[in-house]
Automatic annotation (TrEMBL):
It catalyses: ATP + protein L-histidine = ADP + protein N-phospho-L-histidine. PROSITE patterns: HIS_KIN (PS50109). Keywords: Kinase, Phosphoprotein, Transferase, Two-component regulatory system. Residues 223-242 are annotated as: Disordered. It comes from Qipengyuania spongiae. PANTHER family: HISTIDINE KINASE 1, TWO-COMPONENT HISTIDINE KINASE. It holds the Pfam family HATPase_c. Gene3D superfamilies: 1.10.287.130, Histidine kinase-like ATPase, C-terminal domain. This is histidine kinase. It is an enzyme of class 2 (transferase). Its EC number is 2.7.13.3. Residues 243-459 form the Histidine kinase domain.
Length: 466
């Protein structure tokens, strides 16, 4: 039997040490059923993960959660709001529960156990992704700063196997392996110093994985405290990048994943016109994510304290990685990407992630506006103390007056319906100049365009005399 309530039926508070210091009604009953009591550490796994995220981002969250009290399966809606301590650090988190439903639970029901484990993993993980039955990416959601580069690459590489974006130490077998061999496997991710464990939860009725998979990546190591939790004054306007973007991304990612499930007919047979509708929904969701990313980046690059983290990098490696990320999109349009040749090298002083971001934008634009059957070249050069990387296409090109405006904010040169925000080149130039570099364009109508990124060059230490 199922019992439900749609009102706010329970409230509580968790302190900075994770103890449930206040609770009433069903929340306290559930805490006790899970092995804790008032004043003890919170014992409800799904709520532990939600509170960690609310405290990490310093923002109010509203999410569904599931739990088991031994005899019943509980589903409810939780609203969590971090509170500031006197010193301004994030401390208490207030809870409010509503839409409470309790139904009889059979401990021998393996499907129910798998569902609960999957929900707990999702809440505690730093990266979740929806995969199709071939383990190809449909959507991705990242909650950890050290996975930003991987998340960017995965979003641009939708349609590729997720294993293309992680490394399995000591495993040279062709990827992806059978999902059972990858479930629980340890891996490393470029851009993160932590070690990660992957969990694959099969979806679909009948054969496990027939409806795809839910991928969760989690690490036993936590990141050091970040400034995301710093207090804001009551009059400060919420930040899109810091406050709203994480909240918006999750429901949009779910819309995309569900639309892709419908489009690819993983949930069952479907008329062609409805599959096309689902494809339009997924494309619109990807467009919204791109707009959120652009607006978040705009906020960052226009802030007074925006700086990059320059390091010694190999531009050829960045260029090859950018081309690899966009290779599927280029092939779908019948366009050939020509990255730097093997053995080519150009050392520079710049931030790897930011250069990759710029190149993905430049190559992505070239793919969008180039005709089928054309080529896009990515070439390296050096002029004096400047390291150069150029992206050249065979598109329709830009008139002189368009070249003067192409880097302006929200400038789309009269184009409509192409999914662009008019911010990519503006943001890319701001990033380039923050790295003591620049981004320029040379073009002529009917002769394609050539975008050139220049950054400080680095000397090859191997060639210097000892």
């Amino acid at each position: 039997m199922t019992r439900a309530s749609n009102d706010h039926i329970a409230t509580g508070r968790v302190d900075a040490e994770g103890r449930l210091v206040a609770a009433d009604g069903p929340l306290l009953e559930l805490q006790r059923a899970c092995g804790g009591d008032l004043g003890d550490p919170l014992a409800i796994p799904a709520l532990i993960g939600l509170i960690a995220k609310a405290r990490e981002f310093g923002l109010r969250l509203a999410r569904p959660f599931e739990a088991v009290d031994g005899e019943r399966r509980i589903t409810a809606w939780a609203e969590l709001e971090p509170r500031m301590e006197v010193e301004g650090a994030l401390g208490f988190v207030d809870l409010s529960l509503s839409s409470w439903q309790a139904e009889d639970y059979d401990p021998e029901d393996d499907a129910a156990i798998r569902l609960l484990r999957r929900n707990v993993r999702r809440e505690l993980s730093d990266l979740t992704a929806r995969l199709d039955p071939q383990q190809r990416l449909l959507s991705v959601e990242v909650d950890a700063p050290d996975l930003t580069r991987a998340g960017l690459a995965m979003e641009a590489g939708v349609g590729r196997p997720w294993t293309d974006f992680v490394n399995f130490p000591g495993n040279s077998h062709e990827q992806p392996l059978h999902w059972r061999l990858l479930d629980g496997a340890e891996c490393t991710i470029e851009g993160s110093k932590r070690r990660w464990r992957a969990h694959l939860d099969p979806l679909g009725n009948g054969e496990p994985g027939s409806g795809g998979f839910l991928l969760s990546l989690s690490s036993e190591r936590s990141l050091p405290e970040s400034p995301l939790g710093e207090a804001r004054g009551p009059e400060e306007v919420p930040s899109l990048g810091r406050d709203l973007s994480p909240v918006l991304r999750q429901p949009i990612n779910r819309i995309i994943a569900n639309a892709e499930t419908i489009r690819t007919k993983l949930a069952g047979p479907l008329a062609a016109e409805y599959s096309d509708y689902a494809a339009d929904i997924a494309a619109a969701g990807q467009h919204l994510l791109s707009l959120i990313d652009d607006l978040s980046d705009l906020e960052v690059v226009e802030s007074d304290d925006f700086v990059t983290a320059p390091d010694r990098i190999e531009l050829a490696d960045v260029a090859r990685q950018a081309c690899g990320i966009l290779s599927v999109r280029a092939r779908e349009k019948g366009i050939q990407l020509a990255p730097p040749m093997a053995g080519e090298s150009q050392l520079a002083i710049a931030e790897f992630r930011r250069v990759l971001q710029i190149l993905i934008n430049l190559i992505g634009n070239a793919v969008r506006y180039s005709p089928s059957g054309s080529q896009i070249w990515v070439r390296l050069d050096r002029i004096g103390n400047r390291a150069i990387i150029c992206v050249a296409d065979q598109g329709q090109g830009l008139a002189p007056e368009q070249q003067e405006r192409v880097f302006d904010k929200f400038e789309r040169l009269g184009r409509s319906g192409d999914g662009g925000s008019g911010l990519g080149l503006y943001i890319s130039r701001r990033i380039a100049r923050a790295m003591d570099g620049d981004l320029t364009v040379e073009s002529a109508p009917g002769q394609g365009a050539r975008f050139t990124l220049s950054v400080p060059a680095a000397e090859d230490l191997r060639s210097e005399p000892r």
